[in-house]
Every structure is written in C-alpha cells, then in structure tokens.
Design brief:
The structure is a homotetramer of 280-residue chains. The first copy, chain A, is mainly alpha-helical. Chain A has three domains: 123 residues, Four Helix Bundle (Hemerythrin (Met), subunit A); 100 residues, Helix Hairpins, CATH 1.10.287; 31 residues. Chain A is built from 13 helices and no strands. In chain A, helix 6 crosses helix 7. At the A-B interface, helix 10, helix 11, helix 12 and helix 13 of A face helix 2, helix 8, helix 9, helix 10 and helix 11 of B.
C-alpha cells in the first residue's frame, strides 16, 4: 500500500488522525502501529486455534468473544483509515483495503444471518486476514536489500523456473507412458505433479515409480534436480556478491569538480571529468 | 532447429511463405509464431486433459473435435514448412521435424484403422508433441546467458554427477548387503535407486532402512548428500560471478597515455593518469 | 560460558585447581579437558543406549553402574568448579552451570526416592547432559570463521526465514481451505506445518494434497521453495567470498613512495612504482 | 593407488609388461586400460543383475559362465600386476590390491567348496568389486580441480557437518522426550536418525511427529536445515570463486629478472624483485 500523500486541505483533526494512522514519526503513530501489529498477530492465532476442532468445542465462547473484539477494532480501523484521507478510494481499492474489508465482513454476516446458518464460504473469507501479516514486512529495514537482490535476478530466476516447469511437463508425460495408471500415475497432470515433487527434491512418496524403467527415469530426474538447483543459487549468489563488493569497494568520495560519486578506491583521477582527486 | 538460410532461387510466394514461417521480423511472421505457440500450448493441455479418465468420458466428443482441429493445423504447418524451403530434408530429419511428424500421424492412423482398435503405442506417439514446448524457449532472450553459464560449467558438473552416481552405486550395494531383501532392498539396482533417492535428498520413503546399521549408513549418505550439494552450486555460482563481473565492470579499452587497461565502462577519463579516453 | 578471570586473592591450591579446570595451557589442564570430553561423549552414548528397550533390559546392571560412575565424576567436577572460582554464582547461573546441575540431580533423586518410583520427568532431566556436547565446540579453532560468517549474515538470514514463515502461514491457510479436514489438512496449524515440510523440500508424505487444485498450489510452493533456497545460500556465499578475499589477497600496507595501498601479502616491491616495501 | 616407480633392474619383458599395465603412454597400455574399464563395468552390471531374483533364475547359466570369464580375467590381471613390479607388496597391500584379491576369491571358494553350500558372507565379498569403479576416476582430468577445491574447504566442511551432527543429537533427544515411543520415536538413536533425515531435507516419512509440540520442533529443525544448507555451499562457492579468479586474473608473464611467475595484470613492476615488467 502506498502511503497516501498528506493533503493540506484536511481539517485539523483529520490531519492528526492521518499522522497517527499512516505515519510512524509521532509517539501516537508508533503506538497505533504496535497495537495494530499485536492485534493482527492475535487475530491470526485466533483463526488458527479456531480451526482446531477440539479447541473450538472447548473454548467456543471465548473464541466468539475474542472474534468480536477483533472485528470491532478492525472495523473502527477501517472506518478511520477511510475518513482520515481525502481520496478514500485509493485505500479502499488497494490490496490491503480489500483484504481489510473482506476479512471483517464475515463476522457481521454471521451475526445478522444467524450463527447456525453460517456458510463455509463466508467463514473462509475471514481467513483472508492472514494476508494482513504482510503489513509486518513494512517495518523491517534490511529486507529491502534482499528484495532488491531478488528483483535484479528476477528475470533469470523466472526463466530458470520456466525451464524447470518444461522439464517437469516432459518427464511427467514420459512417466505416465512408462508407469501408467496401474502404478499410480493415473493421468498426465498427476504425473507432472509427481515430476515437480521429485525434481524439487521434496519427494512426498504418495506416488512413486514401481517399474525398473520408471525408476531409472526417476533417478535421472532426481540427479538433474540435484545438480540444477545450483543455477538459481548461482544467480542470486553472484548478484549478491556484486552488490556487496559494490557497497564495499566503491567508497563514496566525491569529485570536487563534477560531483561524480562512485570512484574505485585506487583511482587518482576522476574517471568522469579527469580532475585530480584528493583522497580523504 | 537451425534456421535454414534463405534461398535466393525460391519463387516469390515461396520466399514470402519462408519469411512468415521461419522469420520473426515481419508482422505476419510474428503473428504466425504467436498462433503456433498458442496452439502448441493448447494441444499439450488437450493431451493432459484427455489422460484424465473422468474428463475423457464426459467431454469425449469435444476432445475428439479439438484433436482434429489441432491435427489439421499441425499437418498444414508441416506441409508448409517443407514446401517453403529448398532443402526439406534438413527440416524433416531435424529434431522438431521428426517430433512434428510423429506427433501428427497417430490421429490419421486412428482415423483410418478405426477408433475402437486404437492401439496404445500409436496413441502414445501423440504425447511426443509435448516436446514442441521446447520451441517456446527460442523466444526468450535472457535464457542464452543461463545456457552459456551452464555450458561453461558442463564439464565440471558432469564429473560431479558422475561422482554422485559412483557414490550411489557403492552405497547402494552396501545397503543391499546390510538391509537385504527382507527389508525392502530386494536387489542391487533397487538399492542404488534408493541411494540416489536419498543422496539427492528426495526421500520418497517407499524403501527405507530398518536395521540400526542400515540407518547409520543412511545417515552417513544423507549428511554427505547435504554437504556435497554445495559443489555444483559452487561451480555454477563461481562461473556466473565471473561472467557477471566480466560483463559489468570491466570493458578492456586501453588508456592511450599510461596503458592502464581496467576501466569502468562509464569512465570517460583514465583513473590512473587523468587522460581523456577514446571509447571504441 | 565466559572464562571467569583469574582472581589474585585465591589461595594457592585454589589457583592451581582453577588453572587445571578452566585453563588449557598446562599439561594437567589439557588432561582434565580430554578426560572430561571423553566422559561427556560416554555419558551421551550411555543415555542413548539406555533408551533402547532391548539393551536396557539386557544390560540394566552395567548401565546402572556406569550411570553412577559418571554421576559421581560430574558431581565432583561440579563441586570443584564452584570452589575453584571466587564468584561461584557466575558459573552456577551460566548455561553450562545449570545444565551440569540439572543433569546430575536425577540420579540422586532416583536413588533417594527409590528406583521403582522413578518419575519420567525426573529421568528426562538426565537427557539435558546432551547439551554438554556443546563444550566440545570450544576446542575447534576453524569454527570461529564459520560462526563469524553466520553472525555477519544473521540479520539477512533471519529476514529470509521470517519471509519463509509468512509464506508458509499464507499457503498453509490456503491449503486448509482447498483441501480441508477430509483430505488430512485437519486444521490450520497442521496445514502450516505441511507447508513448512513442503517449502523446505523435506516432504515427509504423512500429509499430502489429494485434490487437483491442492496439488497445483503444492506445485507452486515446491517450485518457490526450490528457487528461493538460493537466497540464504547467496547471502552466506557472498559473505564468505568477501571474508576470504579480504583475508587472503590484500593486506593493507602502504607503499612509502607512491601510496599504492593494495599489495599481495607476498610482495616485497610495490607493483605500482617498483619501490622496496617495508612490511610491518 | 600410487603408480609404482619404474624399476630399472627389471628384465626386459617385465618392463614391457609394466609399461602396458601401469602406463598409459603406449598404444597397448591404453588398450589394456580400456579393456579393463569395460570389464570392470561389465562385472558390476553382472553383480547387479544377479541380485535380481527373477533374472538369476532365468539366466543362471549365462551368469555363471560370465562370472567365470570375469574371474579368470581379473585373476590373470592380479597375477600380472604382481609379477610386473619389483615390490609386489606395495600393490598387494594397497587399497586396490586388497579389493582385487578379495573380490576374486569368492568364485574359487564357491567352486571348491561347492555351489550349494555357497555362504552369503563369501558371496558378499564379490560385491567388493564395486569399489573397482573408483579406478575410472583416474582417467578424468577435470576432476582434479574439484577434488582440490573440496580438499581446501575440507576443514570448514568437516566442522559444518560436525555442527549438523550435534544439532541432530540435541534435537533427536528432544523429540524422543516430546513424541516418545508411542509415536514411533522408540529410542534416542532412532530419534537422532529422524533428526538427520529431517535436517538434511530428505524426509522419508517412515517416522514423523504426531503431537503439536513435536511438529513445532520439527518445523524449527526443517527451517534451520533449509537456511543452514547455505553454509557448505557458501564455503565451496567462495573457494571455487577464489580458485577461478586466481586462474583468470593472474596471467603468467614471467619476470625477466627473478623468474617470479604470478603477477597481477595491472602490475608494472615485479612485486618480487622490483624490476620493470615488459607486458606481452
């Protein structure tokens, strides 16, 4: 979610609210963020525990109560977020806006339609709040470097994964021919699923080859998967190595003539304008 | 498939056809490629869905119709490819030429011999069309770098995988001795298959050691496999690191004044003597 | 455990004892360490063997005897450690102090309360001695480099693992919705456990998707897990590469003539101006 | 096996034999090696096929015949190897000498004692010939680099694997406590085996946690294993990167004054004697 720019025409209380809810520079703003994070984590734990049948029977009332407390808080948060910015649609139709709305609605539907008629589909919507955990990532500084390294090697990794998928389609089809439905490879999509499970070295074992030829092909896939995992690793590793050495080797001493900032530490003259550099 | 060189002696319509089918520079040529790609993907999806028994019963007629549409298109494509080049044998006996032919024939055989007498072996030929997906790779530029990095480290990776196979043969034989047929290690090839499943960290679990000594040896193999995966990764990673730093950081243009050879590609002045560089 | 500083006010025999127990510079000190290490390893093997039911019945008396020998030795060691330093609380409340105490007590409790009433919880305490194996790590020099490399990339790896956990929470919840209790995904925590098992490419196979959609999502997770393992590898690899090249190739001694700073440690003359270098 | 040095006092035919058997520079020497390699591979395939019960019944006579052909050839090879060198004990007590002898004996024992009384232990000796496959590695040049890279990082990898074993001992003991014999974790060694299976991401699934706490600890181990695999990869990768950049960057132009061979490409003066370098 992009932080909507502070609108100068907002009334004073709206501005204050905006600073608290969307900002992190004031004490109250930080407090709001911390309370929100705690509640997000709590609401996710609540959803998890509710899914455990034995807990749900035992602590049904407590869960019901906690659910309402969280629902009300998130409803208030949703309303405050809307009224504190000038262009509410920007928030409403953002990823988090939709998640916030959809994961809050079910409790109200269940309340008005009646608990006994609670539809599974409506209930499932509540699980959307698990996506709110992504809000936590905003608060972690270091993650930017990782994301940028991943972004830089995104093209190469995509191609690699695409190649993996093609290998899996071909070997999956081959295994369907070799093993056939009588050995568990009931159809081609399932065989491709098996090839993915095998190439990625997960190996559930729910399906596995039974004929000698099938096992030979499987050995082949596994060894390829084992050798080929080196490729994405090499890509990201090289990317990170480059980033690190860049950060390390290029010491930012600025050319007094042209302002060029990136010089190799061994340079005596600016490579941009040819002026002599005074190393610090 | 190598792109056959454009023959000057072709008649005009043949040349036009050639440019459309084998080329990618004209609008029609690109359209032809896109339509072909879509049909390849569709034909593969069709083959996959047909292999699902429940779908095949339900949508038999639709599948039959789609099959014929695709067969006719690929037949026309095959004929056009042959008549538009001067040396058709070059295409016919290329990998894609054989795949294109073999995967198109079955539909005709089934039609003339009769649907009820459809042999499995003939039907299986149709699955060859899955190899056509490799044509897609032609259109991805970035993949060249990956392939070149893999090619450069091919020798080392082959040796590594060869070493893996030798370790698996030895440990597989050992496990056959230790565990024996009564614990599922019924023969040496199967034990070697198990060793490959284990060393590559796939671990299906269809066969697993049951004696303490067998488990001890298995632990040994697993830890080796876990530690040794570093080797191909290191190879490819080092190879890529080298490629990247070569491509990115140093273009070899020599300073005409001091002879310094390593300059950043963006440098306009030599960082060693301050002389203006004439980039080539 | 930090090595408590040698206190000058200790009586002579206390000082001698201190040097033997906490030091490694004297012959007796090294002997003490070796005997201790052997006994730690033996006590761990003993605990392991005792847990095997068939061995425990067969060799019950020998185990009982060995248990007491080890208990008495560790008790003496514990007492000596306390009386040989001035501030015993520093040792007593250190990690190893607590482990040493808790893992020695059970034998006495069992002896005084009676063997037949031996509580499982008390017995379990004895297993704490397995943590004593960590003392062994103190004696391995090379491990420092590894630990420092890990420490340097700790922040990045933590974020990476945090991201992995978030992905697992989201996909686990998704799989609970898609597969549901009837396919083994009985509740959300279990589904998250499955997602972790799958993403980390372990793949036990106790739970696995059975619906086509579930298998599709699973394929997605597996391919992500397979591609994403590159990230921590890249981080540590880059970190180590940096450490190695730093340590190996460039010792910073500056040429007194031209100021060139990067010389190979074996160089005797500056490679930039040819002046003799005075290595420090 | 070290190549025994050519002894000048050998009679002429012994020298010729020596050159053929131990050398690879003559035509006959290479032919001998190729025949030997083929026979080693054939003998291993034979042992594998014999272990498959159905093949053994069907082709018993053929296997028996092939076995004798191979046994006789390897016997002759063994005798020739002994008589062609001056110090036969050097070969006899080398690794391959023992393997060659032990794997040839069983056939004779079975022949003289009688086929029906064939002891399993004697038969098992024949499987030793699988180690002969290691002879193949001698012929691969590239493998030296890999082995040297592994050797250089041997110390670090050993410590890493030692750390893995310690983690497995601790978590295995923990899981024994948490899950206990009733959930398949029947004793501590088995639990440690499970921890190894899990940490190395193999995951057979023969044993897996069933309690929530056990699953939580398992998740922890898996995520550690997934994150920690980066360490050996980083070690080997960094080692290889170093090797490669060494090979690449240090261009062998020899100092005309002192003969020092390794100079950085940017050096203008020899770092060993201070003489001006004439770059080629």
């Amino acid at each position: 979610m992009e932080k909507p720019s502070l609108d100068k025409n907002l009334t004073t209380w709206k501005r204050k609210l905006y600073i608290i809810i969307y900002g992190t520079s004031t004490k109250l703003g930080r407090l709001f963020d911390i309370v929100l994070l705690v509640l997000i984590v709590l609401s996710i734990i609540l959803v998890m525990l509710e899914s455990v049948a034995s807990y749900n029977i035992k602590y049904h009332d407590q869960f019901y109560f906690a659910e309402w407390v969280i629902t009300i808080f998130f409803s208030i948060e949703y309303i405050l977020r809307i009224i504190s910015i000038n262009k509410p649609t920007k928030y409403i139709f953002s990823f988090y806006g939709i998640v916030d709305l959809l994961s809050t609605i079910p409790s109200y539907i269940i309340f008005f339609v009646g608990g006994s008629n609670m539809f599974l589909a409506v209930r499932a919507l509540r699980l959307l709040r698990v996506f709110r955990i992504l809000k936590v990532t905003r608060y972690i500084g270091e993650s930017q470097k990782l994301i940028s390294a991943l972004k830089n090697s995104r093209a190469k990794i995509s191609i690699f994964l695409f190649a993996v998928v093609i290998i899996c389609i071909i070997t999956g089809t081959l295994m369907y021919l070799v093993e056939g439905p009588e050995n568990g490879f009931t159809n081609i999509p399932l065989s491709i699923y098996w090839a993915i499970v095998t190439l990625t070295t997960v190996g559930f074992g729910d399906i596995h080859p039974l004929t000698p030829l099938g096992r030979f092909i499987a050995s082949f896939i596994m060894i390829i998967g084992y050798g080929v995992i080196a490729v994405p690793t090499g890509i990201v590793g090289a990317e990170m190595s480059k980033d690190m050495s860049k950060a390390d080797e290029i010491k930012p001493f600025i050319c007094p003539n042209c302002g060029e900032k990136e010089h190799k530490p061994s340079s005596e003259f600016c490579h941009n304008c040819g002026k002599k550099l005074n190393e610090n």
